[in-house]
Design goal:
- The structure is a homodimer.
- In chain A, 29% of the residues are buried.
- Chain A has a domain at 30-102: EF-hand (Recoverin, domain 1).
- In chain A, helix 1 packs across helix 2 (38-53).
- In chain A, 67% of the residues lie in helices and 0% in strands.
- Chain A is mainly α.
- The termini of chain A are far apart.
- The radius of gyration of chain A is 16 Å and the shape is globular.
- Chain A has 4 helices and no strands.
- Chain A has helices spanning 11-27, 38-53, 59-69, 79-106.
- The interface between A and B is large, with 42 and 42 residues.
- Chains A, B: It comes from Liparis tanakae.
- Chains A, B: Keywords: Calcium, Metal-binding, Repeat.
- Chains A, B: InterPro entries: EF-hand-dom_pair, EF_Hand_1_Ca_BS, EF_hand_dom, S-100_dom, S100/CaBP7/8-like_CS, S100_Ca-bd_sub.
C-alpha cells in the first residue's frame, strides 16, 4: 500500500504512520486486505510484540487475543480493534515505565 | 525521564516508545509531571499535530480538545486520555489513506 507522507513529520505523526504501516504490512497477506485474519494476527503478534506478549506460537494465546479484540465476532481484526490493542498495551507500558522511574527515588 | 529501551525494537514497539516519549516531552513542563495541563496540551497540539488539527493557537480549539479529552474533568489530560486522542486520530488517518488509495482503482 502506498501512503502520502508528511515531509517533516513530528515525532507523534511519525508514530501514527508507523502504526498504520505495521497493520497493513500484515493485513494484506490473505483475505480482506484491510483486516487481520487469525493467521495474520498471529504473524503480527509474533513478529512485532514477541517481547510483550510472550510466545504467540501458543494457539490458545492467539485465540484469546482474537476473542478479546474481535468485538464484532467476524473472525477478523480491523484497524480500530488493532488500535485498541496497541493503545491498551502502550498505557500498560507507560505505567510500567513510571513505576520503574519512581522506584530509585523512593528508596 | 529515562526509559528502558529494547535493543532491537520492532516497528510497532518503536511506535509505542515514540507515543510514550511524546507525552512525557510535554507533560513534565509544569504542575503534575505525568499529566498535560491546558498550556502543555496546547504546546503539544501545536508542535506535534499542527498539520492535522489546524491552528491550535486558537484558544477555543484547545478548550474544545481539552473538554473532549478530560473525561474526569480535572483540567488535566492523563496518558490514557492522550492515547484515546491519538488512537482516534490514527483511525481517521487510516480511513483517509484507504479512500486515497482506493480512488484511482475505481476510476
Amino acid at each position: 500500500m502506498s501512503m502520502p507522507k508528511s515531509e517533516n513529520p513530528s515525532t507523534l505523526e511519525n508514530a501514527m504512520q508507523l502504526l498504520i504501516q505495521t497493520f497493513h504490512k500484515y493485513s494484506g497477506n490473505e483475505g480482506d486486505k484491510y483486516t487481520l485474519s487469525r493467521a495474520e494476527l498471529k504473524e503480527m503478534l509474533t513478529a512485532e510484540l514477541g517481547n510483550y506478549l510472550g510466545n504467540a506460537q501458543d494457539k490458545e494465546a492467539v485465540d484469546k487475543v482474537m476473542g478479546d479484540l474481535d468485538s464484532n465476532n467476524d473472525g477478523e481484526v480491523d484497524f480500530t480493534e488493532f488500535i485498541i490493542l496497541v493503545g491498551a498495551l502502550t498505557v500498560a507500558c507507560n505505567d510500567f515505565f513510571l513505576e520503574y522511574n519512581d522506584k530509585p527515588e523512593k528508596k
